[in-house]
Known about the structure:
Two copies of one chain form a homodimer. The first copy, chain A, has six helices and two strands, in the order H-H-H-E-E-H-H-H. Chain A has helices spanning 2-11, 19-26, 30-42, 67-75, 92-117, 121-134, and strands spanning 46-49, 55-58. The longest helix of chain A is centred in the last third of the chain and has 26 residues, at 92-117. The first copy, chain A, starts with a helix and ends with a helix. Chain A binds chain B through residues 1, 3-4, 7-8, 11, 24-27, 67, 85-88, 90-97, 99-101, 104, 107-112, 114-116, 119, 124, 127-128, 131-132, 135, and chain B through 1, 3-4, 7-8, 11, 24-27, 67, 85-88, 90-97, 99-101, 104, 107-112, 114-116, 119, 124, 127-128, 131-132, 135. The structure holds a DNA duplex.
Amino acid sequence: MAVHVLAVLAYKEGDRVTSAFLAGSVNTNPVIIRRLLLTLQRAKLVDTCKGAGSGSRLNRSPGRINLAEIYRAVEEAEPFATPARKPNTACPVGHCIRKELDRIFESAQKALERDLEKTSLADVINAVKASCAAK
Amino acid sequence: MAVHVLAVLAYKEGDRVTSAFLAGSVNTNPVIIRRLLLTLQRAKLVDTCKGAGSGSRLNRSPGRINLAEIYRAVEEAEPFATPARKPNTACPVGHCIRKELDRIFESAQKALERDLEKTSLADVINAVKASCAAK
DNA sequence: GACTATGTAACAATAGTTGTTACATATGAT
DNA sequence: ATCATATGTAACAACTATTGTTACATAGTC
């Protein structure tokens, strides 16, 4: 969803867009969008102003934003899958496996992000445009 | 959790282990383990027998099982994040972006799996053993 | 100062996962 | 054969996370 919103912002080429408009595009509620925009602001991806005739716009050109940044901004609080584990220390495996798995998954995450880095937001826009035009 | 269970199985070197024992190790309920074992069976990773004195064991040696297989077996039904989207077709971006993002995320997934492929279950065991011994 | 749009809180609705109990069924042991 | 054991599976409660909704204070424009 984050990518969707940013894509719309990119589409609007620097114009400020309101959360209400974005919500219409993604087909959801303006508040959801505003919550998302807050995290994107924290990641310095968008620039939001209050007041009449305002809204949000990209902070950088679409060519200088890659998907890994967006991914990190959005998923930062979701470290894969650590659902309230209570590792049983009595088990010889349970005691030490946790940190090993964390290490391995972190590496895998990095690999995923490296792949996402290859694609910029501008690439996405172009692909979407091409795909739409083809229809 | 799947990795944890398989690690215990590997630790037991081919002996059959009951779901009750595994549940104790992971500190959860035997039914949870059995549900997990069903999916691991489908992926041909474990071999489970019913009856007295039975249980589950690895289907292959730990050196021949890599983490990507486990990941795929477990996450196969979870295609990243597609939460009940109703892409608004009225929006020019919304209409076509979906399949583009799917394509990109699929590539990123592959990158992640390629990284996981580098680690075998045996590697995990050894790392855990070393890490435990070091303490 | 009126209007507009964001920031934020509170809360309901929904979905997904985990945990629990219960029971039928298949397998192995005696 | 009979019995004990362990899985397969269903039904349901508990918990968590996400999404959606309403409401309102606040900041910036005109």
